[in-house]
Amino acid sequence: xxxxxxxxxxxxxxxxxxxxxxxxxxxxxxxxxxxxxxxxxxxxxxxxxxxxxxxxxxxxxxxxxxxxxxxxxxxxxxxxxxxxxxxxxxxxxxxxxxxxxxxxxxxxxxxxxxxxxxxxxxxxxxxxxxxxxxxxxxxxxxxxxxxxxxxxxxxxxxxxxxxxxxxxxx
Length: 170
Hints:
The chain is an all-alpha fold. Helix content is about 75%, strand content about 0%. The protein has helices at about 5-35, 35-65, 85-110, 115-145, 150-160. Helix 1 packs antiparallel against helix 3 (about 85-110), helix 2 packs parallel to helix 5 and helix 3 (about 85-110) packs antiparallel against helix 4. The longest helix is centred in the last third of the chain and has 31 residues, at about 115-145.
């Protein structure tokens, strides 16, 4: 059993993860529109990851016998700049999510909610990977600069990214 405050905070995180998915779907659509299908694929895989994060929390709240309360999802910006600017925005967003996850961990610690502390460790580790992926893409995009050939090569590389659903219990 988790507290009402923890339940409310986890429900809020579900909303943030769903917004993240919505944002990345919008970025994917933009990339498709401008002909960057590899980038579109990368962002669509990211969409699926974020939805799986939302559903992981959803399952946990349900398993704890608490009520899921969904909120409206904010509209994403809809306009995006260069791929570099998109990944800089992605990194900034993931840093916001990391801060939110850390806030959940702080709350679980404060409430001596050991089950939720353990549950949230997966997300702490996942956020390290999320930010590292964004930083890697930013470095590559800065390296190629405005070189169309370099951007084309990165786009082709990103076409190979696939979504691997986390195993139950991970």
